[in-house]
Amino acid sequence: MLYQIKEQDIYKQVREEVYSFSSRTVSRLSDEEMTKHSLNAYLGAYTYYNAILDENYLEMDTMAQYVPNYSQNCYALSAILDEDKNILYSNKETLQTVIRIDDTENSGAWYACNLEACPEIWQKYQDYVWNSDRYRDDFNVKLHSAYVNTKEHLFVPHEYDLIYSHLEGDLNGTLYSEQINKTEKNLMINYDHPDYELIVFPEREENTTGTLYPSAFTAYFRGVYEPIFDAIYSQAKGFNDNFATSGMFGVSQTARIYYHVVPIWRDGQKNYFVTIFQIDVWNPHIKKIYLRTIGIFLLSMLIIAYFWSMHKNRLNQVIYQYEDYQRNLINNLAHDLKTPLMAVSGYAENLLTSYRMEEEPKRYLQSILENINYTDSMINQTLEFNKMQEIQKLRKSVCSLHELTEKALRKYEILLEEHQIAVTISGTAEIMANYETMTSAIENLISNAVKYTAVGGEINIEISDKTFRIDNTVTGKTETSALLLPFVKGDQARAGKSGSGLGLSIADQAIRANGFRLEISCTESAFTAVIHF
């Protein structure tokens, strides 16, 4: 919010300052006295703006600032257009100087260089300034003589020196030193044009005072960089549609382009003074606010994440301790139950084999043995289920799914024959898995299929590189949403001793431990279990 308020304040201030400056400039441009100046040079000197971040260096610049110095990407373009909207004059950068022909009052005027007549200067300037991080003030032209067009206020250097300088020192403090790196002296251009007169600028001897006429200031480049001028002007062409008084063109989230148009009359012709200014509010102050806000937010998130992770870690430790306690309790109970069950089973078997008994007691003993065997089976499966839950990292090898399937089916050959269940196996594949856990998974899936296949039914097993599928016929649809949970049985109508309700849970744990996925479903006629690799 602070950033948005600051941004709107900046845009408002910029518009007010630019409109005010534009009005003052138009009043001066309408003055006949302005005809003595090169308007390109004048606009480049007094409506030039190229922001410099350092405030101390900015105070040294005597050029009029067209828009406030908020960031490096703030520029003001000014141009005089004719009624056909063609640019007559602009503040696009040009080499310019003030030339005084004589000592009469107000004889000095702004002159712009005809760069087409001296392309070598233009090229050296681009190489030295455009293609580096130097300021335009680091490139100057000292005139000894020049071809001067007093009517159009244009000049072409004749004999001149090129001065390449470099500003050194602490730009954020008050110490500056200007070191002249290189000077090309006594360069010369020969230019023959009837509108241009060769004028020599005498040099004052040492230890003398006063100005010698004609005279010329050191020429320097002023105005908006040509690539920037062209880029911004091309984006803001919308003002040409109707020459509205003012408007705005959005550029990005931090920069905007505004324009302002004022009609002016010159030499009886209607022209338009157009100001186009780009404001980028992404300055060091705004950056500090933004980065500080982001930093505080990130730090807050880190603190919250730290305390949340500490809380989560403590909670997980409690959960893991409770799960370990549960598994240990189940293991201990299962082992403790197996000992008396084995003793009871042994006594019952001895009674059946050692004494001649009536059918009624004998039937009771057989029922006792059956319940003992069922309970022992449940205990064994419970221990296996706990073992599967404790698995963290498995040693894997190449496993043949066809071999594991045949091995599991051999355990149920007699039962399959008694129930007249037909089994078919199609396909073969090898996978990388833990042999023991995959053996347990497939045996439990086949055991589940054998137990719940109707007499005279079928079991179909399909093996491929992507899936292992078992289909077995059933006599009714079973809800499968909870069958992978421990101790959940699908066939509730059967007696409790038909299964422990752990087979599918053990298979699911073993399959997931190997990185695979088990999917089960059931229709009115078939139960399906699919392992996805």
Give an overview in words:
With 533 residues, the protein is of the alpha+beta class. The protein has four domains: 112 residues, Beta-Lactamase (2-Layer Sandwich); 129 residues, no CATH class; 82 residues, Helix Hairpins (Orthogonal Bundle); 140 residues, Heat Shock Protein 90. Helix content is 40%, strand content 27%. The strands form four sheets. A five-stranded antiparallel beta sheet has the order 2-1-13-12-11, with helices on both faces. It starts with a helix and ends with a strand.
Low-confidence stretches: 1-5, 48-65, 169-177, 492-497
Going across the major beta sheet, what is the strand order?
Answer: 2-1-13-12-11
Task: Please tell me the overall pLDDT.
Answer: 78
Regarding CATH, which class of the largest domain? Alpha Beta
Please give the count of helices: 11
Q: Over the alpha carbons, how many angstroms does the gyration radius reach?
A: 48 Å
Give the terminus-to-terminus CA distance: 53 Å
Our count of domains comes out at 4
> What CATH architecture of the largest domain would you give?
2-Layer Sandwich
**Count the strands?**
20
- Which shape, going by the Cα principal axes? rod-shaped
Oligomer: single chain
